[in-house]
Design a protein that fits this description.
By secondary structure, the protein is an all-beta fold. It has strands spanning 2-6, 12-15, 21-29, 37-44, 48-49, 57-64, 68-72, 78-80, 87-90, 95-99, 104-111, 116-123, 131-145, 148-152, 155-159, 164-179, 185-193. The model has no long low-confidence stretch (mean pLDDT 92).
């Protein structure tokens, strides 16, 4: 098992080719020619098309801002205007984003669905019972807001707002996290190879 504590200095920020926003890559697994998965946060400044991610599944959740309406070439439109509710869709779909009143920030988990199974859950105040689960494969905790005490195996990590805890090669070790304030919000990502 490998445990990595990531902060702002470890992240990679990129401007979109279409100029509509920026993406901050928090972590990725770049095994082989194609990456298996990527976790990022996007600052979307204006409406426009999403990038083509054929061969990948996307899980997106609104973090800040008034929201967005997504229209697809093969699905009914979807409005994402409530923070922290993940929505999954096929990255091959032609997708257009219309902002609902101003810039937004969202979290994106993009996975090679043929090679890995993945989930993204957000824990908020009021639902923040102590979190504990066995890690099989990879797990990530990202402190969206607030501070957390995280423990994995015999180790302990203090997560500050914006920090990410990455666990690779888990084989059943227990990962737990406790919020250190009433405003804490935590993204919990689990990724296993198929």
């Amino acid at each position: 098992m490998k445990v990595t504590h990531l902060g702002a200095a470890d992240y990679v920020r990129q401007t979109w080719k279409n100029g509509g926003g920026t993406t901050t890559e928090l972590a990725r697994d770049a095994s082989g020619e194609r990456w298996l998965w990527r976790l990022s946060i996007a600052d979307v400044e204006r409406s426009g098309p999403f990038s083509d991610f054929t061969g990948y599944r996307r899980i997106i959740t609104l973090l800040d801002g008034p929201g967005m309406a997504l229209s697809f070439d093969a699905l009914p439109p979807v409005v994402l205007d409530v923070a922290y509710r993940p929505f999954a869709f096929d990255g091959a779909l032609r997708t257009d984003c219309r902002l609902l009143g101003g810039p937004i920030r969202d979290m994106n988990l993009i996975v090679d669905d043929a090679r890995v199974a993945a989930s993204l859950d957000v824990r908020m105040p009021g639902t923040m019972t102590p979190l504990a689960f066995a890690v099989h494969g990879c797990a990530l905790l990202h402190a969206i807001r607030g501070r957390f005490d995280a423990r994995v195996g015999e180790g302990q990590v203090a997560l500050q707002p914006g920090d990410t805890l990455r666990i690779d090669n888990g084989s059943g070790e227990t990962l737990s996290a406790s919020a250190l304030g009433a405003d804490a919000v935590l993204a919990v990502i689990a990724i296993t190879r198929r």
